[in-house]
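A.,

Following up on our hallway conversation. Structure tokens first:
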């Protein structure tokens, strides 16, 4: 199949969604592979020191945002030690959530940047939509830490379920939904009907 034939198919509204979803999947998985390679084999070189500082800064920010939300929004009595949130669960013993540098949303920030910088669409909207997406990703990470904490109050033995399956999945669902908004509202914006 030639490039001109692919462009022709992409121009056909019946096939646009397949091309868009296919490109989304390729970009998300490509970035994941690149990130794992950069982390595992290159140890974030050549910018390792900057990445390490970013992880420390972002985890401190996430910790502060999460503890504030637990105390002021959900009225949870917490203790903190280093970057560990300690609270009483419903069985009257203590549970905790540690906000380590690995808990930051750095990978998801980079996923979002990679996706939006490469995915087609008008740059006049990308200049504000990309930063908005980064803020939303950070907000979702606060929701994740707070959600895990609240989950452990009721289900203190199910950290793995909350951390690995419920709240980690939420990141990628939100990134997908933000991408859908991009495609529907900016990439393939339908012209307004005039009466």
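Then the amino acids I'd put at each of the 195 positions:
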């Amino acid at each position: 199949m030639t490039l001109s034939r692919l462009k022709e198919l992409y121009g056909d509204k019946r096939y646009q969604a397949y091309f868009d979803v296919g490109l989304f999947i390729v970009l998300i998985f490509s970035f994941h592979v690149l990130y794992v390679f950069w982390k595992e084999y290159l140890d974030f070189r050549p910018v390792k020191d900057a990445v390490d500082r970013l992880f420390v800064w972002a985890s401190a920010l996430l910790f502060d945002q999460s503890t504030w939300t637990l105390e002021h929004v959900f009225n949870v009595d917490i203790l903190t030690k280093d970057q560990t949130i300690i609270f009483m669960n419903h069985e009257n013993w203590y549970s905790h959530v540690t906000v380590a540098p690995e808990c930051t949303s750095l990978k998801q920030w980079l996923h979002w940047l990679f996706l939006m910088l490469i995915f087609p669409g008008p740059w006049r909207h990308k200049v504000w939509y990309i930063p908005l997406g980064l803020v939303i990703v950070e907000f979702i990470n606060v929701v994740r830490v707070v959600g895990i904490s609240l989950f452990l109050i009721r289900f203190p033995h199910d950290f793995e379920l909350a951390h690995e399956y419920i709240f980690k999945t939420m990141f990628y669902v939100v990134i997908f939904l933000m991408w859908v908004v991009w495609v529907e509202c900016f990439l393939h914006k339908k012209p307004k009907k005039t009466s």
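Residues 47-187 form one domain. Curious whether your intuition agrees with the design.

B.
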